[in-house]
Design brief:
- With 129 residues, the chain is α+β, with helices and mostly antiparallel strands.
- 19% of the residues lie in helices and 42% in strands.
- The protein is built from three helices and seven strands, in the order ββββααβαββ.
- It has a seven-stranded mixed beta sheet with strand order 1-2-3-4-5-7-6, covered by helices on one side.
- The two termini are 15 Å apart.
Length: 129
């Protein structure tokens, strides 16, 4: 389960919980910064994704990412894509994002610690939200 915490107008901190216990965190970013990653005006940028080290390897990361398909349309109407960047050397994270439905469309960006792969998640439409 994910839930939004309070924050700056363009940064939306999200807490991933399991049985009401926080197990992870990420931030969805709106506004001008998103344009650095996609031309889609209906996209959000996912940053700062992390899972508590004591909770890793229990599926929470994948579940949190997969819940974006329900959470984002319910809380951000009109958004149809999530983008993120991941270091090219971080193969484990790339594999996780791919398993959760993110695609590599060939976009690259130079980050503070090296080249970043830009990955895209097209949000599925769910009925009954």
């Amino acid at each position: 389960m994910v839930g939004e915490a309070q924050g700056d107008a363009n940064k939306h901190p999200i807490v991933i919980t399991a049985d009401s216990v926080p197990v992870g965190f990420f931030v969805l970013v709106s506004g001008e910064r998103v344009k650095e990653y996609t031309v889609n005006p209906n996209a959000l940028l996912l940053i700062a994704f992390s899972i508590d080290y004591r909770r890793q390897r229990k599926g929470y990361a994948k579940q949190g990412l997969e819940s974006l398909h329900r959470f984002v349309p319910a809380h951000f109407p009109g958004i149809d894509e999530i983008v993120l960047s991941v270091n090219l050397r971080n193969v484990a994270a790339q594999t996780l994002y791919a398993k959760a439905g993110f695609e590599d469309r060939g976009g690259r960006k130079t980050g503070p610690i090296g080249e970043q792969k830009i990955m895209h998640l097209r949000l599925r439409k769910y009925c009954g939200l």
